[in-house]
Design goal:
CATH class of the largest domain in chain B: Alpha Beta
Strand content of chain A: 15-25%
CATH class of chain A: Alpha Beta
Shape of chain B: globular
CATH superfamily of the largest domain in chain B: Thiamin diphosphate (ThDP)-binding fold, Pyr/PP domains
Strand order of the largest sheet of chain B: 3-2-4-5-7-6-12
Largest sheet of chain B: 7 strands, mixed
Strand content of chain B: 15-25%
Distance between the termini of chain B: 51 Å
Largest interface: A-B, 19 and 22 residues
CATH architecture of chain A: 3-Layer(aba) Sandwich
Helix content of chain B: 40-55%
Oligomer: heterodimer
Number of helices of chain A: 6
Number of domains of chain B: 2
Shape of chain A: globular
CATH topology of the largest domain in chain B: Rossmann fold
Radius of gyration of chain B: 20 Å
Largest sheet of chain A: 6 strands, mixed
Structural class of chain B: alpha/beta
CATH superfamily of chain A: Pyruvate-ferredoxin oxidoreductase, PFOR, domain III
Number of domains of chain A: 1
CATH topology of chain A: Pyruvate-ferredoxin Oxidoreductase, domain 3
Structural class of chain A: alpha/beta
Order of helices and strands of chain A: EHEEEHEEHHHH
Chain lengths: ~180, ~350
């Protein structure tokens, strides 16, 4: 089972990234839940998202002891790194976080996701780059399955966004840290 | 039908439309706004009406008017907005009209906050508006159940001729889970021969009213209504039991809190604590009898809510002092964690009273 916490600023695509993990889980016939927590702002402010992907029915949808933490800013890493279960995984954006995870009992994987996104001209897709790195490091989903999933994630009216998501996913997956 | 990933708020709206409801009157408020949004988008597509009123008070009185014609009608709001609706709800109770009211609760009192809470329990189950009356209160604990209970709510409202509330919270409203709008059991519904639909000059006109100047006449209507509450309690009380067969410590929790408690119960079992969960699904009528029976077997009850202890009193009344009932809760928009509930269970199991 996977209890995943995604956290960062509002506007970074935290909720979208969480939703894609959940939708992919549904395609695999898993039990899933997605619970957002954010303030009244559209952008800025803090935002986090609890995601559960499990074979059993989900009890608490609130993730308080994540197996996986995806941290997209420094306050999120500071707040949530201590809550990750021993042996768990932390994936974080080193472009925006200049500190280490500070635990030796979790697997910490840093990737300059925002920098890579800017370099590739897909500035808003650091979230998907992090997902790419996540599935490479954890095997949460097979690469080809999730690539097809994320490619189909765009609304029908904007199919080009699906291609950009696929591009971002491959950047994250291909990153050699 | 394939499962759809939906927010709880959206699932309620879709379930209402599928239940044949074509009238939504509301006024936007966080954290229920997705419900209004879904209605605005989808009601016109099926020939329905979604109307943003000038206020909650206007919206609930539109519900009163629509319900008077026998139409299925729904309104939704969150805590402060429900308080505004309470006068109209009392009138609807007094007029014996069916309707569905959704409360996606947030922290209070006052304008409070926008995070999830269960602090309107007493308001919903004891006194939603003035006068000697009740509404049916259903507490779903998942997006799937939000859909199922919405369909149920319309049937119960029609059968018992009273408002029925979907009692949710900001977490359930905004969380996404897969939902399957499977065929809901078809219930036999009474004819709405009381509705004001125009007589065509062929029958005596119906009157929808909540004003009775003669005390004896008013008393008669209230007593008759309480007969219906009695039947409601006998026939429609719903609850879920989880790991209670050999339980020594029973957590009592509803809605999102029950989900958290369920995880705590599973973790307590792993630690050798014989815990179980009793989840009321109808908060009014409250499942008093099964809780009373449960009191013969367990050692202690832990009532968990997102408030300072409101259902606690109903649990105590149901248990009739047979066993101690202890409250644990967070409030103001804070969701209790499974770890916190487990800690309480450990305290119960380990310590003296």
């Amino acid at each position: 089972m996977s209890a995943i916490l995604l956290a960062g600023f509002g506007g970074q695509g935290i909720l979208f990234a969480g939703k894609q993990l959940v939708l992919a889980g549904m395609k695999k016939d898993k039990q899933v839940s997605w619970l957002p927590s954010y303030g009244p702002e559209m952008r800025g402010g803090t935002c986090n998202c609890s995601v559960n992907i499990d074979d059993e029915p989900i009890g608490s949808p609130l993730v308080t002891a994540p197996d996986i933490l995806i941290a997209m800013n420094k306050p999120s890493l500071l707040k949530f790194a201590g809550r990750v279960v021993p042996g768990g995984t932390v994936v974080y954006d080193t472009s925006l976080i200049d500190i280490a995870v500070g635990r030796d009992d979790v697997n910490a994987y840093g990737i300059p996701a925002t920098g890579l996104a800017n370099d590739a001209g897909i500035a808003k897709l650091a979230n998907v780059i992090l997902l790419g790195y996540l599935i490479k490091k954890t095997g949460l989903y097979e690469k080809d399955f999730f690539l097809e999933h994320i490619r189909g994630s765009a609304p029908k009216s904007k199919p080009e966004l699906g291609e950009l998501n696929a591009k971002a996913l491959l950047i994250g997956y291909g990153y050699e840290g | 039908m394939a499962k759809m990933l939906m927010k709880g708020n959206e699932a309620i709206a879709e379930a209402a439309i599928r239940a044949g409801c074509r009238l939504f009157f509301g006024y936007p408020i966080t954290p229920q706004t997705e419900l209004s949004e879904y209605m605005a988008k989808n009601m016109p597509k099926c020939g329905g009406l979604s109307l943003q009123a000038e206020s909650e008070i206007a919206a609930i009185n539109m519900v009163l008017g629509a319900a008077s014609t026998g139409a299925r009608v729904i309104t939704s709001s969150s805590s402060p907005g429900i308080s505004l609706k309470s006068e109209g709800i009392s009138y609807i109770i007094g007029s014996d009209l069916p309707c569905v009211i959704v409360n996606v609760q947030r922290g209070g009192p006052g304008l409070g906050g926008i995070q999830p809470a269960q602090s309107d329990y007493n308001q919903a189950t004891k006194a939603l508006g003035h006068g000697d009356g009740h509404i049916i209160v259903l507490a779903p604990d998942s997006v799937q159940e939000m859909a199922a209970l919405t369909a149920e709510a319309f049937d119960l409202a029609d059968i018992y001729r009273m408002p029925c509330m979907i009692f949710a919270d900001g977490a359930l409203g905004q969380m996404m889970e897969p939902v399957d709008f499977e065929a809901v059991p078809v219930r036999e519904l009474p004819a709405k021969d009381w509705a004001c639909t125009g007589t065509g000059g062929k029958r005596v006109h119906n009157i929808i009213n909540s004003l009775y100047m003669e005390p004896e006449a008013l008393e008669k209507t209230v007593v008759e209504r309480f007969e219906r509450y009695k039947k409601l309690a006998e026939n429609e009380t719903k609850y879920e039991e989880f790991m209670l067969d050999d339980a020594e410590y029973a957590v009592v929790a509803y809605g999102i809190t029950a989900r958290i408690a369920k995880t705590a119960v599973i973790n307590a079992r792993r630690k050798g604590i014989k815990a179980g969960l009793f989840r009321p699904i109808t908060l009014y009528p409250f499942p008093e009898k099964p809780l009373n029976r449960l009191a013969d077997g367990v050692k202690k009850f832990l009532s968990v809510e997102m408030n300072m202890g409101q259902m606690l009193n109903d649990v105590k009344v149901a248990v009739e002092c047979k066993k101690p009932v202890i409250h644990f809760g967070r409030t103001g928009g804070v969701i209790p964690t499974p770890e916190e509930v487990l800690e309480q269970l450990e305290k119960l199991a380990g310590g003296a009273e």
